[in-house]
Write a structure and sequence with these properties.
Length: 427
């Protein structure tokens, strides 16, 4: 019993590890020539919505349900027959993303269970051929295109529903692997041919067999041929265009995006009450943006297609903040002027944003500043501060005693010319 448990944990860790460690190692790998103009919109966008949705959303015990509860496919398949989301309205999802200040949306077209939300000629385990009897990706794509929202497709290479794949964790054998890879290639072709412009391809679920077994190079070449402007993540086992640290902010020397759950589960799990407070979510977003990274925040609609009210509320609050403070996020990168006594700093052109986590009171001090601060203004209220600057030390006076924003207060600094750190800069 103990041994089985250990073995199970080991396989679980192995699978989780392969998808993540590849991403980490790839950072050191030689990157193929990257067309910077293709990824520029994404790097400026900074903030996107991740959506985990599939037949697992109905029971509401997360997206790993089939594996974790060791459900045989014959039983799991019943979920697909019952999966008929009556309240599915992707227009609403996209509207919520927009309202939250998100500039792209990435949806799970197929997760590790192999269930496809789209129509596929090479699988019967799809929404149009089971309970829903419709192509849910078509509706999603139409909603994104109509709203001018950039659209991403998540696709898991791993496919547990395929006979012989489970238990996972060891190579599946050449002939089965070929069938799996053929299916994946065909489905990527379908996804990138049948739904208009696709902006992002977000792979996941690379197995221990590695990128050769999935013919990832060929897969990426096909993807780029079908969608010349597409950007691709690093979880096919190849570097792709951007790295994907998961539930961690890990700045990298190449384009990167941290994806985060709002609670601790990607798929719908109503009993997971571990929601991050809005202030924490905004801290993560600001932390990514101020290090040139992106932030992909997950929502988990229920089996009927509704985004849970707690998540909708978080999105609404983030949207309120973004309306006032988005300037500190969109197109941002690291600032040479830092203020570790206050919190984080980001830079957009000649503006530096103090993202203040420890509000000091009516005077906000910072230092190691090598250029002249012309003006300082709170983004929440529009109030200007009186500036005192002596050498590289700066004091912003006449500010409120208690911070006006309940989550994260931002002061915009306008410089006379380029913002610079003093010499030697703060280390
Ligand atoms: C992991 C998990 C998966 C989740 C993904 C999000 O690979 O297996 O459930 O979809 O990360 O990044």
């Amino acid at each position: 019993m103990k041994l089985t448990l250990k073995l199970l944990t080991l396989t679980f860790v192995l699978f989780a590890f392969t998808s993540k460690s590849f991403a980490q190692n790839l950072d050191k790998a030689t990157l193929p020539e990257q067309n910077n103009s293709k990824i520029q919109w994404w790097q400026e966008a900074k903030f996107g919505m991740f959506i985990h949705w599939g037949v697992y959303s109905a029971p509401g015990r997360g997206e790993w349900l089939m594996y974790q509860e060791h459900i045989p496919f014959s039983e799991y398949a019943l979920l697909a027959d019952q999966f008929n989301p009556q309240k599915y309205n992707p227009k609403e999802w996209v509207a919520k993303a927009k309202e939250a200040g998100m500039r792209y949306v990435v949806l799970t077209t197929r997760h590790h269970d192999g269930f496809c939300l789209f129509d596929s000629k090479v699988s019967d385990f799809t929404a149009p051929k089971t309970g829903a009897k419709r192509d849910l990706i078509k509706e999603f794509a139409d909603a994104c295109h109509a709203a001018g929202m950039r659209m991403g497709f998540y696709y898991s290479l791993q496919d547990w529903h395929f006979p012989g794949v489970l238990p996972q964790g060891s190579p599946v054998g050449a002939s089965l692997q070929k069938m799996l890879a053929d299916q994946a290639h065909e489905q990527i072709r379908e996804l990138l041919s049948n739904y208009g412009a696709v902006d992002i391809l977000w792979f996941d679920g690379l197995t221990v067999d590695g990128p050769e077994a999935w013919r990832s190079k060929e897969l990426l070449e096909m993807a780029r041929k079908l969608q010349p402007n597409i950007i691709i993540n690093d979880r096919s086992g190849l570097p792709g265009d951007f790295a994907t640290p998961e539930n961690a902010v890990t700045a990298q020397s190449r384009p990167w995006e941290s994806c985060f759950c709002m609670n601790r589960t990607w798929g719908y799990a109503p009993n997971d009450r571990n929601y991050k407070p809005v202030a924490e979510i905004l801290r993560l977003l600001a932390s990514c943006a101020s290090q040139s990274g992106n932030f992909l925040l997950n929502v988990s609609p229920d089996g009927d297609g509704t985004i849970p009210p707690e998540q909708a509320e978080i999105l609404k609050n983030i949207g309120k903040w973004m309306k006032l403070n988005g300037k500190a996020i969109y197109g941002a990168g690291p600032s040479p002027v830092v203020a570790p006594n206050l919190g984080m700093t980001s830079r957009v052109g000649n503006k530096v944003y103090l993202l203040i986590q420890r509000w000091p009171g009516t005077t906000v001090p910072f230092a190691w500043c090598g250029s002249k601060v012309k003006s300082a203004r709170m983004l929440t209220t529009g109030q200007y501060a009186r500036i005192e600057q002596k050498g590289d030390r700066v004091w912003l006076h006449d500010l409120p005693q208690t911070p006006p924003d309940p989550w994260l207060n931002v002061i915009e600094l306008t410089f006379d010319g380029e913002p610079k750190a003093s010499e030697p800069a703060y280390r």
